[in-house]
Specification:
The chain is an alpha/beta fold. It is 37% helix and 18% strand.
Length: 278
């Protein structure tokens, strides 16, 4: 079964048509939507979301996933670190969270996608919340099932569930939840190994691809996929052997020449995943 490349238009800026045109030029037929028009997708109007859908339809593109910021948050009294939440608040009162779940599912419906990303609460010291036991998760999974949507948990280092063992605990407990596997994040937390991929593979439904070169000061210099430290040549064949036909979404974070990074990344994915990608 052949998988496919996914491109996020906001890697090229906040006019989604620009990124969509690049996707079309690269023969990429699937999109991931995160932000547009200088706003997170969850706070766009229905009319703006409809325009994104229209632009995609004009180019023969499908929305593979909504990269929502759900659960990349903490309580109002907590103090999050330097977190990129893509234009969405990092401190969200408990009473507002169910509304945001409902909004994410509504946005997915307008975009006509059946995948929505979630995170697992920001790690904020003693005020860190438990994702595994969060009653909102049970509500969200039931609402998503009614809407025909799959919630997929990303392994995010600044959140509470990023390593294989806690990921497996959550996925085995909440069987309606799938895995949005970011292989670079897995490598960042010290588990970029074939063994970890083998353990997580049964739950993977979507893959994020980005690459970086570690710097001496502990920061990262993002580069095109395949040009950095993440051992994709080892990890992707293992994942493909156990889970064929997955979507592989490019998330470069490259600031200079992002279009070139996306082109190089798409070519890298197509030659590195066994059998290639559409």
């Amino acid at each position: 079964m052949l998988g496919h490349v996914v491109l996020n238009p906001d890697e090229l800026g906040q006019d989604p048509a620009v990124g969509m045109d690049l996707a079309h030029a690269l023969g990429v037929r699937h999109l991931e939507i995160r932000t547009a028009y200088d706003s997170n997708a969850l706070v766009l109007t229905d009319a703006q979301l409809g325009e994104i859908r229209r632009l995609a339809d004009e180019r023969g593109l499908q929305v593979a996933a909504l990269a929502s910021p759900l659960w990349k948050w903490c309580r109002s009294e907590a103090t999050p670190g330097n977190v990129d939440s893509f234009g969405f608040p990092t401190r969200v009162p408990a009473e507002d969270r169910e509304r945001w779940v409902d909004r994410a599912l509504a946005v997915a419906g307008i975009l006509r996608t059946d995948r929505v990303r979630v995170f697992s609460h920001l790690s904020v010291g003693e005020q860190t919340e438990s994702f595994l036991d969060d009653p909102l998760l049970a509500y969200a999974l039931q609402a998503a099932e009614r809407a025909g949507v799959r919630l997929l948990l990303e392994n995010e280092p600044v959140c509470t569930v990023a390593e294989p063992a806690p990921l497996l605990d959550v996925l085995r407990t909440h069987t309606g939840l799938g895995l949005w596997l970011d292989l670079s994040n897995l490598y960042e937390v010290g588990h970029g190994t074939a063994k970890a991929v083998e353990e997580l593979a049964p739950y993977v439904e979507y893959v994020h691809i980005k690459d970086y070169v570690p710097k001496d000061d502990g920061t990262k210099s993002f580069v095109a996929a395949g040009a950095g430290a993440v051992p994709y040549g080892e990890l992707m064949p293992v994942l493909h052997r156990l889970r064929e036909g997955l979507p592989y979404a490019l998330e470069t974070h490259v600031r200079r020449n992002p279009g070139e990074a996306l082109m190089r990344g798409a070519a890298f994915l197509r030659r590195t995943v066994p059998g290639g990608l559409a």
